[in-house]
Amino acid sequence: MKQRDLLKKLEDAGFTFERHGGNHDIYRRGSDIEKVPRHKEVNESLARMILRKWKLL
Q1: Is residue 33 a contact partner of residue 16, using CB atoms and an 8 Å limit?
Q2: What are the residues whose beta carbons fall under 8 Å from the beta carbon of 42, sequence distance 6 or more?
Q3: Given this model, what pLDDT does residue 40 score?
Q4: In terms of pTM, does the model score above 0.90?
Q5: How many whole angstroms separate alpha carbon 47 and alpha carbon 4?
Q6: pLDDT digits (tens, 9 = 90+) for 2-56
Q7: Domains plus CATH for the chain?
Q8: At a CB cut-off of 8 Å and minimum separation 6, what does 48 contact?
Q9: Contacts with 51 (C-beta within 8 Å, 6 or more apart), sequence order
Q10: Is-contact 44 1, C-beta < 8 A?
Q11: Closest CA to 50 of 42, 22, 12, 18
Q12: 26 and 20 in contact (C-beta within 8 Å)?
């Protein structure tokens, strides 16, 4: 999955960019935190896991 597609789904669910980490970008929604790898392509199983975690899939 393209990183921008994953970020769009997270942002639509209320997550906002907080900061850059070492190899990840940190997104926050209240007390919820999600780390997204900074790659053009995010591994398909990782993207599904992130989306399922927040019930977006």
Answers
A1: no
A2: 1, 2, 3, 6, 36
A3: 94
A4: yes
A5: 11
A6: 999 999 999 999 999 999 999 999 999 999 999 999 999 999 999 999 999 999 9
A7: 3-53 (3.30.920.30)
A8: 57
A9: 6, 9, 57
A10: yes
A11: 42
A12: yes
